[in-house]
Design goal:
Blueprint lengths: L4 E2 L2 H11 L1 E4 L5 H20 L15 E4 L7 H6 L3 H10 L5 E10 L25 E7 L11 E2 L14 H4 L1 E2 L7 E5 L4 E2 L9 E9 L9 H4 L2 H5 L3 H6 L17
Parallel strand pairs: 1-2
Antiparallel strand pairs: 2-8, 3-4, 4-10, 5-8, 5-10, 6-7, 6-9
Amino acid sequence: MLPEVTDNMNQVSSDLQQYGLALVSDQLSNKQLTLARDATYRAAQEDITLARGADRFELDYGEGNVRVWNILNRHKVFQQMVQLPVVLTLLKEVIGWPALLSNISANIAEPGSDGGAWHQDQLYIPKPWPPRPQGMNFAWALDEFTSDNGATEVIPGSHLANDLDPSSFDDVAEPLIAPAGTLIVFESRLMHRTGCNRSNDSRAGLFGFYTRPIYRTQENWFLSLDKEVTESASEELLVLLGYKTRGFGLVYGKSPL
């Protein structure tokens, strides 16, 4: 029912077409994984201390589902992760280039937390949808994803379904069980949700959603990003953030940067 974890990019491409998702290994170093995990939990604690982010994102519900926003400002490792070669390669293959980073946030499922709501990431696009996906989600398992600790649940193949019956989801839902450091890639038509955490440990994941450049980003990078992020950004990152553009967002007919 689910693809296996692989580092074979041909298999990744095949899995994305067949299942709507792929599990990719060996894309983060142990150092990057440790930095990203520690920075995520530290940022969550900072938000509590400073009373930031009290309102939950509309797709989250229930106690214990913690969303950490403004991730790119939290540590340079996140700036690296959103533009890793595997990310850029798959973006260009599936939705094309240039693309935009619409949002990136961490989700921490605490012990006893409820699951999230079933959804597809391109719900904001009026139907009937175009025949190709309009976005991609790149999710990093910062902790091991297990069937008990709130691993993301998916409906394999739902990216190709025209009519979905939510009453049958619980019978066909599959948890994405994966080691820490795994990259979980899925296209924007795949039905998915955060699972319930029935374990005694928290589970952290990092979710970056990318779209074709015709859509407005969910996060307002021009207001939220620290100046240090854009001053040190690569050309690829500037494109993903909308600072270097083609055709949209021009200033006096030219790209702002």
